Amino acid sequence: MRILILGAGKMGSFFTDVLSFQHETAVFDVDPKRLRFVYNTYRYTTLEEIEEFKPELVINAATVKYTLDAFHQVLPALPKDCIISDIASVKTGLKEFYDQCGFRYVSTHPMFGPTFANLDKLSTENAIIISEGDHLGKIFFKDLYQTMKLNIFEYTFDEHDETVAYSLSIPFVSTFVFAAVMKHQEAPGTTFKKHMAIAKGLLSEDDYLLQEILFNPRTPGQVTNIRTELKNLLEIIENKDAEGMKKKFGLLGEPLFLGILVGCGIGALSCKNGQELVDKIPYILGLGIKMGAVMELIPRITALFIEGLKPISDATRELIAQKFKGAVGLNIGMSPALVIGHPATLVVSLLLIPVTILLAVILPGNQFLPLASLAGMFYLFPLVLPITKGNVVKTFIIGLVVLTIGLYFVTDLAPYFTQAAHDVYEKTQDAAVNIPAGFEGGALDFASSPFAWVIFHLTYSLKWIGSGILVLCTLFLMIMNRRAIIKYQKSKIKS
Fold first, then answer.
1. Whole domain around residue 233: which residue ranges?
2. Given this model, what pLDDT does residue 6 score?
3. What is the DSSP letter of 471?
4. In a shared domain, residues 423 and 446
5. 377 and 448 in contact (C-beta within 8 Å)?
6. Is the pTM of this model over 0.90?
7. Where is average pLDDT lowest: 125-129, 130-134, 297-301, 367-371?
8. Average of pLDDT values for 14-35?
9. Is residue 382 in a domain?
10. Which of 107, 165, 293, 406 has an alpha carbon within 20 to 30 A of 136's alpha carbon?
11. H/E/C letters for each residue in 211-276?
């Protein structure tokens, strides 16, 4: 097929490279200097050359601003049976032009550009073919895009414009905002550098293209959505709204989904090569489902127990208040699991799950990899909430420090934990506590506590001396607590 490409810019050169080895191609550009960078093709600058070439297909790769002008310029030199086409990202005015031009036409939009896309690997990129076009023309571009391994979608002109308004307007606007507020960084992070590269690439695009994208009638609606979400996010940040932050996580904020990801990830990491990964897919998926079930069910089951315990706590407090004068403010000690449903607890726990797994892998000397223990992380943070007043950042920092130290505590206590499990198994033959040979067990939610570690080593290592120390410490705390209660009761009586 004889194919004429209008414009020797980035996309024009790209299509020339793709098509020139299988078709007879020619590139037309009014600027001869631009033609220096196209190869394996004819280079035309006059309409007479186009008339002599007699193209069967024209691909308009001129910049958006000059798409219609390029068509009007070459139409007189085209055979009547020629199919004309465009690859413009903005279709403003093109439908009306095609309806009046008298030529068969096809309109497409490769949803990528040479600036950002990896042209050697386009399998992750998309292309749109407008349905209101010539049948043979659409077949040609479908075959072409399939050869490029692009994902192909067929939209009407209106559907295309709506898609572009969503997929281009939001990134363009957000990038403009980033470019407006950013400052030079001496030591930029990875995310900042990626944003910077995107901003530079976007700002180097044709001004007319940027105008057409931003002035799309559907763009204001998308910008309004951005403004609304930014307002909501600002409120979350200012109010330290952990519940709102949890909702922002979406699917990743669900313990079930996160458990499945963690389980599948751990299962995949156990594979030595790609073949083993394929063979163990059922095992990996099964591990993901089990981990997800653990993450989802344990907090739910605990919540049911707590729901039943809270009325008991309230009734006990009232009974003591009636029986003991001045004991109205007496507190009843109960499990910290009472507040596992607090938004800060959930958010911090979800954030620390991947962090804990990473720490377990990279910390020198640590030999404990938490699996089922991840579900117990919901129980580690309630006690710090009164201190941090529900502040997510403070709670996260405390949790990070505690878990880092806790992993070493679990590693240290793992041999004793394993021995205890073996003893229970020998007595009960309960498979739930049977730790396989060659492995040691541990529990992050129990053994990572500094109190548990200290109490264990005092009683195990120091025997009676350690037990005596614990008794003395307990008596001391009892006396101090008793004095505090009496002082509080006297203050209540006086008032």
1. 173-239
2. 95
3. H
4. yes
5. no
6. no
7. 297-301
8. 92
9. yes
10. 165
11. HHHHCCCCHHHHHHHHHHHHHHHHHHHHHCCHHHHHHHCHHHHCHHHHHHHHHHHHHHHCCCCHHH
